[in-house]
């Protein structure tokens, strides 16, 4: 077998055989297939696609490139959630302790932000002392004792994906449905969860800009999970505007704690409860009431224990950025658009995200929203507050925010998009 013949097969719109897929993934992981050869193959896949059999085999080969975790020693069923990424998407933070409080175990391997989308680990690292990197034994111990753990995936899990994802990121080959589906599902299946709920984001702030693309991605991933014995369900959810009223690391932790205290923005609460219900159902946990677990403080108790078990101080003050800049509404009326992508880019430019994987992030940087689409606004009222430690970033962030919103005359007909758009099982 050689890399050139595999590339030619896909370049010429052929089907890759099982043997070709197994060989190329294994040889790439071992360094025998060069980065330039794999990037040519990834581009051929992006342009010419893969069928169901090829995607299934590609995913299985990536799982086989590393170790598989095993949670069979736990007394509770496991349930995990994966979001395809968005702006202000802090849902994992209240969701993991909430589902644990309702009786499932939540092994949540999470990532860092890159580009305009935030990452759960960056958000949690704004809690003083909290650690993302745990050994497999420590992860299992936190999961067993608190019911939930949120941590970085170890190096042994789907190493082929780790290498390939970094390569796709710099070769314009991220946005291929077969590659996204196999990348996400290889990690989730290798992680060993019994059930999985996928939050597939749709809209300007998401990878998938249209419902049709989101449906295709969701049904591909649901099929892969089911074939590997993982009960998998997907919700397609709106990402045309940021979730909640904050985008940025410590700002989003603060908002998540508000949700765990029984308050918080309506869209964050709605999506957290909708995903919790799906996870509990997929895990076979009956008679649990996630809304009650938010109201009675039991989800907050798990949050506090989970943060403390990973070295964090749940009572410590969260970092606040040194400088703020308020953007005021230029007119009175109804806010009819606040674009998720533009807000994500502005938060990133303020220091909430990184330009290169090795860059640090600012814990306090980001954006607070003072109105959501559908809300009435008055000329001169605060619309957005920008936060950063480095005020020279304001100008660059303001360029991103310019044109990110529309205000229509009062009384204009407007219906905000529902949070949950569709369910695919
Ligand atoms: N997230 C992943 O883990 N992989 C992708 O390819 C895209 C998003």
UniProtKB/TrEMBL annotation:
<dbReference type="InterPro" id="IPR036566">
    <property type="entry name" value="PYNP-like_C_sf"/>
</dbReference>
<comment type="subunit">
    <text>Homodimer.</text>
</comment>
<dbReference type="Pfam" id="PF07831">
    <property type="entry name" value="PYNP_C"/>
</dbReference>
<keyword id="KW-0328">Glycosyltransferase</keyword>
<dbReference type="InterPro" id="IPR017459">
    <property type="entry name" value="Glycosyl_Trfase_fam3_N_dom"/>
</dbReference>
<dbReference type="InterPro" id="IPR017872">
    <property type="entry name" value="Pyrmidine_PPase_CS"/>
</dbReference>
<protein>
    <submittedName>
        <fullName>Thymidine phosphorylase</fullName>
        <ecNumber>2.4.2.4</ecNumber>
    </submittedName>
</protein>
<dbReference type="GO" id="GO:0009032">
    <property type="term" value="F:thymidine phosphorylase activity"/>
</dbReference>
<comment type="similarity">
    <text>Belongs to the thymidine/pyrimidine-nucleoside phosphorylase family.</text>
</comment>
<dbReference type="InterPro" id="IPR018090">
    <property type="entry name" value="Pyrmidine_PPas_bac/euk"/>
</dbReference>
<dbReference type="InterPro" id="IPR013102">
    <property type="entry name" value="PYNP_C"/>
</dbReference>
<feature type="domain" description="Pyrimidine nucleoside phosphorylase C-terminal">
    <location>
        <begin position="334"/>
        <end position="408"/>
    </location>
</feature>
<keyword id="KW-0808">Transferase</keyword>
<dbReference type="InterPro" id="IPR036320">
    <property type="entry name" value="Glycosyl_Trfase_fam3_N_dom_sf"/>
</dbReference>
<dbReference type="Pfam" id="PF02885">
    <property type="entry name" value="Glycos_trans_3N"/>
</dbReference>
<dbReference type="Pfam" id="PF00591">
    <property type="entry name" value="Glycos_transf_3"/>
</dbReference>
<dbReference type="InterPro" id="IPR000312">
    <property type="entry name" value="Glycosyl_Trfase_fam3"/>
</dbReference>
<dbReference type="InterPro" id="IPR035902">
    <property type="entry name" value="Nuc_phospho_transferase"/>
</dbReference>
<dbReference type="InterPro" id="IPR000053">
    <property type="entry name" value="Thymidine/pyrmidine_PPase"/>
</dbReference>
